[in-house]
Amino acid sequence: MAEIVHSDTIRTMFSSAMSDMYRKEVPQYGTLIELVNDVNEAVLAANPELKNRLASTGELERLDVERHGAIRLGTAEELFNIRRMFAVMGMFPVGYYDLSVAGLPVHSTAFRPIKEASLARNPFRVFTSLIRLELLEDQDLARDAARILSERQILTGRALELIAIAEKNGGLTQAEMEEFVKEALETFRWHSDATVTADTYKRLNDAHRLIADVVSFRGPHINHLTPRTLDIDAVQKGMPERGIAPKAIVEGPPRRQADILLRQTSFKALEEKILFSDAAGCEEGTHTARFGEIEQRGVALKPKGRNLYDALLNKTRQAVIVGGKGEGATSYEAEIEEQFKAFADGFDALRREDLAFFRYRAAPNALENGNADSIEALIASGALIADPQVYEDFLPVSAAGIFQSNLGSDAQSNYSEKANQSAFEEALGAKVTDAVRLYAETESESLKTALQTLGQDHLFESLSNVA
How many C-beta atoms surround the C-beta of residue 45 within 10 A? Predict the structure, then answer.
């Protein structure tokens, strides 16, 4: 039997093919990649300390290949089969996101690698949303949408066959992998022919533009691919200089010495020509769905830090409303800067105040004689190094803000939550993984290993407040 290819290799081949396809479909994406590469090179050249830290933690190697995409699905069956497809690539559902809190009738998860080694090789993520037709006020329209969705098949027959082969054999061979990637790309390709009439599209669009995007086409076209930048403010400033119109504000926390969680911006969705399937012949129209996004990732926060982040963000959003055309953006930026003065800055401060997750390692050639008094003493001596763990996940409010911009508005919306994780997991056919647990396990295991290396095992048992 031919050798089975590692899922990390499949994921890397697929993400590269996806990037090539999207660059051809959305030329501005190529311009965006060039801008991000230029900014990253400039940041690394100006900050040798950052470059050394990224190199020592493996982040430098993954920086150029790092991407996340986003898709929107219409039915439980689609979500179930997409989970199976991503599993072949070593990607698993992490986290549950309720976007109804921002007026979007979807709930979501992020498919991504969960093992440290796999994240280091290629941290490709796909933010995947399932529409919630039960939230539509017009239930007659919801039933029509459900009927339309029931008639489509988003995965090719051969893709499903190859998924079944991978499930049976524990993976794919080289030849099967190449065929799988080709077939899987068809799920995410853009198709300009709508599957609905112009009248149905208008009804769906009037109910919610996101609903129209999901229901009106034969598959969940990838609507953005996001590179990672080391300075999102420089990218935001540089976009207009390259003919790209950015959204009004950068979503997430303000600029800080020690980046936390996730900051995101994007350029507005493209207006693309589509053809409707009217009985009297094809009728031409337009649709806006696909756009460009950029992200800057910081350290993952512990529950204490995340609660503080959420509280400060809520205060900011209550104090300043950003209008549909970006009105109030300057005031918003000033307000969030002021609010986040209450959040400790600097990685050492974040660690000492137990706000963020870290990964520990013994310094090269570090030797300890006798028993150290504390973790702090080891860190102060340089024997133990604490590296910030990259936040590998997403933020509901930020995701909603990007979605709103994608739909043609920068307006903020604050709605009551209508979460339904159990229904989402039932459709998924699996439980979502708790991201906080993953970060906590990495911190605890890395600390234990580092202390063993330094001959300081006795300290581990007394550090339940650190792990």
Answer: 9
Q: Which tens digit of pLDDT belongs to each residue from 127-161?
A: 999 999 988 888 999 999 999 999 999 999 999 99
| Ramachandran angles phi, psi of 127, nearest 5° | -75, 115
Give the Cα separation of 403 and 410 in Å (integer): 9
Q: 3-state class of 211 per DSSP? A: helix
| Domain architecture of the chain: domains with CATH | 7-297+396-433 (3.10.180.80), 357-389+434-467 (no CATH)
| CA distance linking residue 112 with residue 94, whole number of Å | 7
What are the phi and psi torsion angles at 379 (to 5°)? -70, -45
> What confidence tier does 78 reach under pLDDT thresholds 50, 70, 90?
very high
**Alpha helices in 193-247, H assignment, sequence order:** 198-207, 209-215, 232-241
pLDDT tens-digit map of 388-409: 999 999 987 766 655 555 555 4
Helix (H) or strand (E) holding 326: none
Strands (DSSP E) contained in 224-347 are: 225-227, 262-267, 271-278, 281-288, 292-297
Q: Which amino acid is at 466?
A: V
Q: Please check whether residue 109 is in contact with residue 137, taking contact to mean a CB–CB distance below 8 angstroms.
A: no
Please give the full DSSP string across 143-161, using - where no structure is assigned: HHHHHHHHT---S-HHHHH
> How sure is the predictor about 466, in pLDDT bands with cuts at 50, 70 and 90?
very low
Whole-number Å distance between alpha carbons of 377 and 374: 5
pTM (predicted TM-score) = 0.90
Provide the strand spans (E) within 374-466.
Answer: 384-388
**Cα 137 from chain centre:** 29
273-290 burial code (b ≥16 CB/10 A, e <16)? ebebbeeeeeeebebbbb
102 and 404 Cβ atoms separated by less than 8 Å: yes
Q: How high is the pLDDT of residue 412?
A: 47
pLDDT given for residue 152 in this prediction = 94
**pLDDT digit string, tens, across residues 277-308:** 775 566 778 887 777 789 999 999 999 999 99
How many C-beta neighbours within 10 Å does residue 190 have? Answer: 18
